[in-house]
């Protein structure tokens, strides 16, 4: 159980979402993403779904369902595979190797795509959990990289 608590604390520090929120019943998108990340890391560390459930505050079936959903997100067809994924991701990458959030127009410009094609590419990245929308309250939608 301590391993799961450490993982939840790490995810909380990385995402800015409190460990209490990650372990709550909150179903907002950002909390769910943080919860999925914590569950995925705990399972990758060899922790059973029952132990994860005890720490997260749900049941083992919920953890298994979340893991299946994670797998579905990972398996969404992005086209021709790794080469296309690299092209979709490239606009987010800086020369230093870090990634930066982008507007639709920035993404289109960096990718050399029309706005419509850029919107489609971003939709693929959102569907597989690699990118999320942020900053909608500001009047400008920002696309933020959250994938691996």
Automatic annotation (TrEMBL):
Q: Which InterPro entries match?
A: Trp_repressor/repl_initiator (IPR010921)
The lineage's top-level taxon is Bacteria
**Segments crossing the lipid bilayer:** 45-63
A single Gene Ontology MF term assigned here is: sequence-specific DNA binding
Keyword annotations of the record: Membrane, Transmembrane, Transmembrane helix
Q: What is this protein called?
A: Uncharacterized protein
Organism, by scientific name, is Paracoccus aestuariivivens
